[in-house]
Amino acid sequence: MTINEIQDEIAEEFSDYSDWMDKYSYLIEIGNDMPPYPEEHRVQQNVIEGCQSTVWINASLNDDKTLHFDADADAIIVKGIVGLLIRVLSEHTPDEILNADLYFIDKIGLKENLTPTRSNGLLAMIKQMKLYAMAFSVKG
Amino acid sequence: MFDIANIRSQFPILSETVYGKPLVYLDNGATTQKPQCVLDVVNDIYMHKNANIHRGVHHLSNVCTDLFEQARKTVARHINALSDAEIIFTRGTTEAINLLAFSFGETYCRPDDEIVITTMEHHANIVPWQMLCERKKMKLRVAKISDKGELDTDHLYSLLNERTRLVCVAHVSNVMGTVNPVKQIIGKAHAMGIPVLVDAAQSMPHKNIDVQDLDCDFMAFSGHKMYAPNGSGALYGKAKWLNEMVPYHGGGEMIEKVTFEKTTYNQLPFKFEAGTPDYISAIGLGRAIEFMEEIGMDNIERHEHELVKYAIERLGAIKDLRFIGEAADHSSAVSFLVGNIHPYDTGMILDKMGVAVRTGHHCAQPLMDRMGITGTVRASFAIYNTKEEIDKLVEAVERVRMMMM
């Protein structure tokens, strides 16, 4: 699936939930279902440290030149959010990731997590994932 | 007579809703809401009285100068300072402590001298002293606390010696609500000739403070945590220190005579108030203090004590909930964690239920390290809070537990 097809699919799933509590429950479920984060990548250089929650993101190159992301967070809702980003961006080429317009964030109402104090959450995660893509695109 | 409905009706913001739910505001340790009388004073000045103070010959300037100096008298009277010249208006506690760290440091500190603080200090009572220690090649000594979040006073006293220049201690911990025995600490320090700064940011809104009875040398506090406008606060200092200390900022108002060869400084308190102060917020602070006095500091303390007791009792009954800080002497804040749920998750869900709390390290990272945690959820109370609001907090925390565990 393309990045936009995945985004549409997520927007469709979230449209079932009108209440924020349900959205949070779903994010918690996504967070809990994430594959375990490889311990060898739990290093300082992979940390996106915020005021409120610590997030780890690691990127590696697949054989087919697409990028694979792993991530973890100590707060489960944040983990759910990074889980969504991974679902959208992982296993795509660096160019696709760099050019991605992440409109699903607005659509599912996550935008309020983008306020400056929480920027270390969502904005910093996206920035880091695009930086990885840029680094691998230069290498490639 | 403590009429909670009447008190609440004086705070316009308390009738707001968030996400369609009535606001339950339990983040008073961060900042309190403002009563109508304080808002009215600020508004009245901007609409009818505003002019810069201490300078003009004109009518409005004199009116504002009088109001500003009356506010200083109100603060001085409220904390029982010997003279209103001992009250230096600042933007808040942080600025007050930075002022002191610079001026005290430049006047009295030499290499190898020591400053004593405690493990439970807010960053505002850590970092300015660290900066001073770096600047002057001094040493920062830190008094330990117990697992219950109580200060180890014996350890603090063991740190005092002939190199100690100042002891800096929070009256009340912003995270745990622990009340420190500052009067006893001041007595012990004074016996060795060591002055003491009390960080009263979290006690001034909740308690009767008498600086002469405590005999503290310095005290810092913030107006916005005690129903006053933002940008108000003060440093209290005994005149003997303030007279000796060099100024912090240079500029207008703090001078006596300026020439390019030499400048002499104004008398207290103006020596420490360079530039145009936030006189409107300071006047608002005066009004906020009157508002608290009208209710009665004893009534405030009694009401908030009941709230804390009730919160501890109700929250304590929640399965898997543990308190961070279980001091016997406990003021208006309660910190807790539920199981292994991250405080940020708890806070986000409480928010959606209309309950405003603070989560995170509360600008006290060394305390978090000491307690072996990364953050807490903190509910902090003010005169307008009710037991019904604590019930809503408890209900919301129960819901978090159901969702996450």
The number of distinct structural domains of chain A comes to 1
Number of domains of chain B: 2
CATH architecture of the largest domain in chain B: 3-Layer(aba) Sandwich
Q: What is the highest CATH level, the class of the largest domain in chain B? A: Alpha Beta
Number of strands of chain B: 17
* Class from helix and strand fractions of chain B: alpha/beta
The CATH architecture of chain A can be named as: Alpha-Beta Complex
What is the level 1 CATH name of chain A?
Alpha Beta
Task: Please give the most extensive interface between any two protein chains, plus how many residues each contributes.
Answer: A-B, 14 and 18 residues
> Helical amount among residues of chain B, as a percent range?
40-55%
Radius of gyration of chain A: 14 Å
Overall spatial form of chain A: globular
Shape of chain B: globular
Q: Segments of chain B where pLDDT lies below 50 for 5+ residues?
A: none
What is the N-to-C order of secondary-structure elements of chain A (H for helix, E for strand)?
Answer: HHEEEHHHH
Helix content of chain A: 40-55%
Radius of gyration of chain B: 22 Å
Total of DSSP H or I helical runs spanning 4+ residues of chain B: 14
Keywords:
heterodimer; A: 140 residues; alpha+beta; Sufe protein. Chain: A; three-stranded antiparallel sheet; 6 helices; 49% helix; globular; B: 405 residues; alpha/beta; Aspartate Aminotransferase, domain 1; Aspartate Aminotransferase, domain 2; 2 domains; seven-stranded mixed sheet; 14 helices
